[in-house]
Hints:
Layout: H1 2-32, H2 38-54
Helix pairs in contact: 1-2
Amino acid sequence: MMAIGKYMVVITFIWVGFILGISFMEAPLKFRAPLVDLRIGLSIVDVLYSIHLTK
């Protein structure tokens, strides 16, 4: 039973790391694109977070 708890902690940290990594890598790149304005950039954020939070 303790092994399952340890695996769940590891999986949680990996998932949080993926979310933070994607957030910090894609945000600056998204707003540097020449044709992406603030409205389009924020709509991309909405789509990405809705995908990440539903899985």
